[in-house]
Amino acid sequence: MDKFVIHGGIPLRGKIKISGGKNAALPMLAASLLTPEPIVYHNVPQLSDIFTIKRLLTDLGVIFNGDDSLIAQAKKIKSHCAPYDLVRTMRASILVLGPLLAREGKAYVSLPGGCAIGPRPVDLHLRGLTQMGAEITLEGGYINARARRLKGAEIYLDIPTVTGTENLMMAASLAQGTTILKNAAREPEVVALAQMLKQMGAEIEGQGANIIKIKGAESLKGTKVTIIPDRIEAGTYMVAAGITGGKIYIENCCLEHLEAVVDKLREAGLTIEPEGSWVKVKAPQVIKSTDVTTLTYPGFPTDMQAQFMALMCLGNGVSVIKENVFENRFMHVPELRRLGANIKIEGASAIVKGVPRFTGAPVIATDLRASASLVLAGLAADGVTEINRVYHLDRGYEQMEKKLQALGAKIERVKD
Question: Residues in domain Enolpyruvate transferase (predicted)?
């Protein structure tokens, strides 16, 4: 396995370009199953999760050409099985369920895996598809779904699940009649997928709100799309500037997708302002301790909680960070403590008392965003920090060490 070795204490300076969003690209790639016509994707990030879903889609019959500009075409579906060996490594693999069922009338998909940050059951996906007329059974860890043709239905989601909204929206795009999703997810990635489906021929309204109406089409056509910028990557590098006392300029960043994060970072003292096509991020003289509570969009994203906690570890007082989305998302806390953080866990809250500095030490990454928080802490730490199991980072950050090196960081990837 690879590890990162970081010599910390260097203020980051320079310019950085944000990659296409992983969480936008994954459902949009899965949507290639909905049509036999080619789809052209621009700004596709080169990440291990992208490689995984491309492998899965290839097994199902999608033919790919290109890299960051990618052509995908599923002229014929050659398999209806998403196997355990692929699905267990990435939860988003469940996104092939809706398109397969809608186009082919059958799907055999392993129950998913992914980061161990708490239970994320797919029962809302299955319940919604059942309401649309699917017959679904669970057999040996697999979802066996069948339907002659899905039919529009009114579906209430108990929680605004992102992948559930996306799966049902894709299924509804080929269903007979109109589907209404209530309490739908509102994330920018959901909006981007809805826009793509509209370009393909589905009639969709309400995306970005909590009620989405989808009128299905008899068939969908190919299209051209550009993957939206990765808002979590942008937020992570904003924190990197703040935690190291630096100043950076970010390209390909949509501040509208980051309002809750930007508000909290400004509250912590960072300067964040647009300058032409760039966003300038400047660290404060003193990091102000700031409370935060994770919520579904447009609230503060759970995917930024660990990174924000790393920043608060160097705050000038006490901050309370409450995790309302995933119950096991404090696994980075013991590792931050190894670097000198003062954090106490009380139920779903972390009480963070600021310390003057981090001190480098060997640490182990436990999941994608936890890994990012350790990199941030290592960049600010005195001495050397070694971060083991950085394969988690490769799932969601494109060439992270190279981008940080371009900002002046002393970070290298080495074989463990």
Answer: 8-404
Q: Is 59 annotated as a binding residue?
A: no
Give yes or no: residues 152 and 189 share one domain: yes
Q: Are residues 162 and 39 in the same domain?
A: yes
Of the residues 206, 226, 246, which one is the last residue of a structural domain? Answer: 226
Average pLDDT of the chain to the nearest whole number: 95
151 assigned ligand-binding residue: no
Q: Do 128 and 160 lie in a common domain? A: yes
Domain harbouring 401, CATH code: 3.65.10.10
pLDDT in tens, 371-404: 999 999 999 999 999 999 999 999 999 999 999 9
Residues 72, 66: Cα–Cα separation, whole Å: 9
55 is in an annotated binding site: no
Which residue, of 191, 226, 261, is where some domain finishes? Answer: 226
Please list the active-site residues. Answer: 115
pLDDT category of residue 113 using cuts at 50, 70 and 90: low
